[in-house]
């Protein structure tokens, strides 16, 4: 049995991401799209669409899915799974600290 080591990264204040939008970050050599949902929740997925390389952080989101801006495939913000296609984005655990900073957890390399 293998266990993966996880690392937490502070991406800065949540206020830098307007509610209803996403932003792309480089975290430990990965491109990660972080979404600040209108509900106040935060979600994170791989930032590059596996189909055509679209910038996922630029996609429209309704709080449940985000659409790839290049081909409009919908990806579930919680699971990373595409609806109606075999594509998948890796989801990342996120949290917001008491000070309002976004923390994302990724496997340590």
Protein model, in words:
By secondary structure, this protein is mostly beta strands. It is built from no helices and 8 strands. The chain has strands at 6-13, 21-27, 30-36, 42-46, 65-67, 74-76, 91-96, 101-107. The strands form 2 sheets. The protein has a 6-stranded antiparallel beta sheet, with no helix packed on it. It has a two-stranded antiparallel ribbon with strand order 5-6. A hairpin with a 5-residue loop joins strand 3 (30-36) and strand 4 (42-46). The mean pLDDT is 93.
Overall mean confidence score, pLDDT: 93
Tell me about the biggest sheet?
A: 6 strands, antiparallel
The oligomeric status of these chains comes to single chain
**CA gyration radius, whole angstroms:** 13 Å
- Anisotropy-based shape: globular
- Contiguous low-pLDDT stretches (5 residues minimum) are none
**Number of beta-strand segments:** 8
Our estimate of the beta-strand percent is: 35-45%
Percent of residues in helical segments? under 10%
> How are helices and strands ordered from N to C?
EEEEEEEE
Distance N to C terminus: 18 Å
Number of helical segments with 4 or more residues: 0
Class by helix and strand content? mainly beta
Strand arrangement, major sheet: 1-8-7-4-3-2
Short description:
The chain is mainly beta. It has strands at residues 6-13, 21-27, 30-36, 42-46, 65-67, 74-76, 91-96, 101-107.
Keywords:
8 strands; mainly beta; 109 residues
Write the layout of secondary structure elements.
Blueprint: E1 6-13, E2 21-27, E3 30-36, E4 42-46, E5 65-67, E6 74-76, E7 91-96, E8 101-107
Antiparallel strand pairs: 1-8, 2-3, 3-4, 4-7, 5-6, 7-8
């Amino acid at each position: 049995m293998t266990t993966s080591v996880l690392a937490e990264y502070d991406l800065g204040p949540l206020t830098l991401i307007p509610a209803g939008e996403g932003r792309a970050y480089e975290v430990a050599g990965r491109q990660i799209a972080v979404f600040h949902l209108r509900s106040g929740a935060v979600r994170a997925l791989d930032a590059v669409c596996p189909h055509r390389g679209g910038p996922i952080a630029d996609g429209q989101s309704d709080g449940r899915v985000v659409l790839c801006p290049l081909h409009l495939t919908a990806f579930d913000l919680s699971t990373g799974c595409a609806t109606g296609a075999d594509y998948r984005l890796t989801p990342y655990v996120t949290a917001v600290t008491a000070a309002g900073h976004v923390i994302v957890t990724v496997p340590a390399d």
